[in-house]
Structure formats: structure tokens, C-alpha cells
Design a protein that fits this description.
Helices cover about 30% and strands about 20% of the residues. By secondary structure, the chain is of the alpha+beta class. The strands form six sheets. Strands 11, 12, 13, 16, 17 and 18 form a six-stranded antiparallel sheet that branches. Strands 1-10-9-8 form a four-stranded mixed sheet, covered by helices on one side. It is globular and about 65 Å long. The two termini are about 35 Å apart.
Length: about 550
């Protein structure tokens, strides 16, 4: 998910005015004793499950939707939610039985058709959904979403509704981990209201999760309220969540200390030296499935020519990860040595040291490699990042300083800030990057496949730089078809070796989830995706 990196609204978007602003709301939430307030940023796109692949929108969808699977808030393990059972004889043909008794918050029943219709919509080329790629293994995707030309079918031939509670899925190849991907929001069900009046639904999304959207003012806040009719096992333990938009994480932190905000789920780097003193036990710092990288625009010939892999490798060797993580991030980041995350563990595919010497700080070798590769395109690189959240300016400046010192040129690298996350993502989506850009990744589900395929497979949904390598693609296909988990992981690691040898992206550091909260709250925790487990939070 791009939010660690991955908001326009359609006509008729919600425009309810609020008295509270991004910095207002006394007593924490300003919306009732049982309601908590939390820092947030406007999502990039309308909140359609198949069109949201960044963290801010994902936070909301995770509160208002429940899918076939759900990832355990402590372990990340995929467990059945709406799925009563998922059977397969061959890892290619699946029969899915949906639990009885689930409804959407508008009263509609959740059925097998709710899933099939949603997946067909998400896959369709004409609907232009950013997560369409996740349906790519279902048979018929090449007709519904062809690589070129117009679609020749409106529905996926691999999806069939058997009865009210059962549907079948036929994949175009074996994919043994397919059931474990079904907790991702792109696979959420949709009510018929979504299709009957799409504009109305987009203006106020209706889901089947423990919360309902009450109102939203772009640039200010979104108010969610507990849905009393929710029948799932994870009911909300508070009355609602008010997500307040901040364009500066330091301001959010200041509001937390002042009692104007209950929860900040990304402690700014500038405050890490103070956070333990300020918050004590109300500061959370836990491992998360997040990696920060620098991506490159391979659609720009300057970065996609013979020798450019040496330039990228040289830049990687010019970055003093240890110094940056220790001085700026104070043990909330760990220097990356591969392209996944330690939360996967060795059995899940994490391989400490896979990057080898290419991730070791070596100024002399860095300078030699860059020169051997033809030098920096145009003589200078500009690292593009969003300036509104995450204290990115501090680390980008530090990375540039490290590169400049290695090359003996104080103008070799400069930061290129973009005002907001939404604008930053829009520029990336429109392929306007001319140099390296911030490309952190928050896992969608805890599989090595998710750290590699969406980011580096040819034309994958989050392959923002448009890197393409036939050998990598072949190995990923082989890994997905492997029914033996250990063999699949090993093959994915071979594919990761191709990423390393080409330095498709520069791994910087693994990121912990960090948060701070007010004295009004208890039972606050971050899940392995670094997102607050909102439904478990109690408000006093």
C-alpha cells in the first residue's frame, strides 16, 4: 500500500461544514464523550475499495468494511471473517462459502453476489480502479482488463455465483497463497446501492464494518460513528472516531499535548527526542510491515539506459543508513538490508543481508560506481517527497547530505518537496517524476509476494516507476504457482535477487509503527500494518 509512501473526490462529494478545524476540538475529539479524535490526511482517491491503495484512505475502509479474511491485529495472520470456508482441490479452483447473517449498514444482506459484483467492478478497465491488478490472477482478466485496446467482456469468466452464500473462483494459474490475500480491502464486498447510484454512494460510502461514515469535509475532518447494527466479533468499543486532517505532523503532536487531539499515529522525527518524557507509557513504538525506499522513473530514459544500474547502486552505497536512523529516527527505524520486512520472519521470506555490499555505506566505492555508470543524469538528482506528513524533509535532507559528502559536491543531491500527500501521489500517478522519489511501502498482507509483485512486476498496480524485468516476472509467476510454501518463498527470494542486481529501488530502512495518545484513551495498539486498531480503543 502506497500510504507509507501509496484526494480527489467526485462531483457531489461531502461538504458538510464543521465548527472544529484541523487544530480545534477541545476535550480531545470535540464530538462527544465516547468519541476519539485521531490525526489523518485526505485520501488520494474516492473511497472505493478497489480504488484505494494508500494508507489514509485505507484507514477509513478498514473501519467501514469487513472482507472474507481479516489480518490478526497482533500477528498479522489471515483469519476467516466473512468466509465460512475456502476450499480448493488444486490451488487454482476455489469454492468460497460466505457466512450467513451479515448485512451492510443500509440493511442490504451480504451475499456471494456482493463479492462477485464488487470484484467484477474492480477488475473492469472502464472503471479505472487502481487496485484492478489484484484481480489479475482470476480467469478472464485479460478480456475484462486488456493490456491494450478495449475490454471484450464485462465480467470475469472465472467468477461464478452458485447460490446466495457460495461462489467459485477459477484462476488462470495456480496461486497457493490466494486465500491469504483476501483480507486486502480491494476484495471487500459492495452493496447494490454502490451500483444503483454510484455518485451517491461515493459521496457517503456504505460498508459492512463496525463504523459508518457520518460526514466528511475535505481538508478538515471525517467523522465516523459506531454502527450499532454490526454483527461481527470485533464491535467498536467506542462511540466513534473523528479523523482530523493535518498537513504538518508537528502540529498534530502539539495538539495532542495540548489536549486538542487524542491520537497521533505517526510521531514526527523532530519530536522523538521528547516523546518518552512527554507521553511516558502513552508512547507506542512497535515493529511494522513497512519499508522506506527510493524509487526511480524508468519511463525517463536517463534512468533506464545502460549503466544506470551502477548509478543507482552507487547512490545506495552513498547513503549512511546507520547514522541517519540513529540520529534522526532514534530506534524507530532500522537500516534495510533487503526489500521486505523483518515482520515476515525468515520463514516468511525476510532475508537479512540480501542486499549485500550495495547497502553498505562506502563513499569511495559509491563515487566510483556512479562515475562508471555515466554520472548523475543532468549532474544532479532531486529527491521528490511530500512535505505534509512523516517528517520526510529531515531524512531527505540527511540522505542528500550523505550523498553530497560521498561525491564531494554539495549540489549533487537536493530535496524536492511537494506540498501535500495527495498532490505528491497525483504527480507520481501521472508519471511526472524526473528523478528518485520517496516510495515507502506498507504491506497489504503479510506475504513476501506483497513486497515484490505489486512494486516490481511489469505494469503492476504500484509499480510507479514502471520498472520491468522479464526474469523477475518469470520467477514471480513460478513462486505463485508453487504449492509448497517453503519453495514458493525461496523462489520469491530469487526474484528479489533480480531486484538487487538491478537496484530497481534503493532500500533505506524498515519502519516501526509509532503513536502517542491522550489520557482519555486506553487499550491503544497498532497492528502489524502500523494502523491503530480503532475498534478496540476505549474512551474514558
Amino acid at each position: 500500500m502506497r500510504g507509507a509512501t501509496h484526494a480527489r473526490w467526485a462531483a457531489g462529494a461531502m461538504a458538510v461544514a464543521f465548527a472544529a478545524t484541523a487544530c480545534g476540538g477541545g476535550g480531545g475529539s470535540g464530538a462527544g464523550a465516547g468519541v476519539l479524535s485521531s490525526s489523518w490526511g485526505d485520501p488520494q482517491n474516492p473511497l472505493e475499495p478497489a480504488n484505494t491503495n494508500e494508507v489514509q484512505g485505507g484507514k477509513v475502509l478498514d473501519m467501514i468494511f469487513r472482507g472474507l479474511k481479516r489480518y490478526d491485529s497482533k500477528t498479522g495472520q489471515a483469519k476467516n471473517m466473512l468466509a465460512e470456508k475456502i476450499d480448493t482441490p488444486d490451488s487454482q479452483n476455489f469454492t468460497i462459502t460466505v457466512k450467513d447473517g451479515w448485512t451492510f449498514s443500509n440493511g442490504e444482506k451480504v451475499t456471494a453476489k456482493s463479492f462477485v459484483d464488487a470484484w467484477n467492478y474492480g477488475a473492469s478497465l472502464k472503471n479505472n480502479q487502481k487496485n484492478a491488478y489484484f484481480f489479475g490472477y482470476i480467469e478472464g482478466y485479460d478480456q475484462v482488463h486488456p493490456a491494450s485496446g478495449s475490454q471484450t467482456a464485462d465480467t470475469l469468466s472465472g467468477l461464478k455465483v452458485v447460490n446466495d452464500r457460495t461462489f467459485t473462483v477459477k484462476l488462470n494459474q495456480k496461486f497457493s497463497s490466494f486465500p491469504d490475500t483476501l483480507g486486502y480491502v480491494a476484495f471487500a464486498p459492495l452493496p447494490q446501492a454502490f451500483f444503483k447510484d454510484h455518485a451517491a454512494w461515493v459521496s457517503k460510502p456504505v460498508g459492512n464494518g463496525p463504523y459508518q461514515i457520518d460526514s466528511y469535509t475535505k481538508g478538515a475532518q471525517m467523522a465516523l460513528k459506531k454502527w450499532d447494527g454490526y454483527s461481527g466479533p470485533d464491535k467498536a468499543r467506542n462511540d466513534g472516531v473523528t479523523l482530523k486532517v493535518y498537513t504538518d505532523s508537528d502540529t498534530a503532536y502539539t495538539d495532542l499535548l495540548a489536549g486538542n487531539l487524542d491520537l497521533v499515529d505517526d510521531i514526527p522525527a523532530s519530536q522523538l527526542k521528547n516523546v518518552k518524557k512527554d507521553l511516558g507509557d502513552r508512547y507506542i513504538n512497535t515493529p511494522a510491515g513497512i519499508i522506506q525506499t527510493l524509487a526511480f522513473p524508468y519511463y525517463d530514459q536517463a534512468w533506464n539506459k545502460s549503466g544506470s544500474e551502477k548509478v543507482r547502486t552507487g547512490l545506495s552505497m552513498a547513503i549512511n543508513r546507520k547514522q541517519i536512523t540513529e540520529t534522526i529516527f532514534r530506534r524507530t527505524r532500522t537500516p534495510a538490508t533487503d526489500w521486505t520486512s523483518p515482520v515476515l520472519g525468515p520463514e516468511g521470506g525476510f532475508q537479512d543481508g540480501l542486499c549485500g555490499t550495495a547497502c553498505d555505506y562506502n563513499p569511495a566505492e559509491a563515487k566510483r560506481m556512479i562515475q562508471e555508470g555515466g554520472g548523475l543524469p543532468g549532474g544532479q538528482i532531486k529527491i521528490t517527497y511530500n512535505a505534509d506528513t512523516g517528517s520526510h524533509r529531515m531524512w531527505v535532507d540527511a540522505v542528500c547530505n550523505s550523498i553530497n559528502n560521498a561525491l564531494g559536491n554539495d549540489k549533487a543531491c537536493v530535496g524536492n518537496p511537494v506540498g501535500t500527500f495527495a498532490d505528491f501521489r497525483n504527480q507520481i500517478s501521472q508519471h511526472k517524476m524526473t528523478g528518485p522519489f520517496r516510495a515507502g511501502w506498507q504491506m497489504d498482507y503479510p506475504l513476501i509476494q506483497n513486497f515484490l509483485q505489486p512494486l516490481y512486476y511489469t505494469n503492476a498496480s504500484s509499480n510507479d516507476g514502471k520498472w520491468s524485468n522479464a526474469q523477475f516476472d518469470k520467477l514471480v509467476d513460478q513462486a505463485n504457482a508453487e504449492s509448497d510454501t517453503a519453495k514458493a518463498v525461496s523462489t520469491f527470494q530469487q526474484a528479489e535477487g533480480v531486484v538487487r542486481d538491478n537496484m530497481a529501488a534503493i532500500p533505506l530502512w524498515y519502519q516501526n509503527g509509532s503513536a502517542g495518545y491522550s489520557q482519555r484513551l486506553s487499550d491503544v495498539a497498532l497492528n502489524p500494518f502500523s494502523v491503530p486498531v480503532y475498534n478496540e480503543i476505549k474512551v474514558s
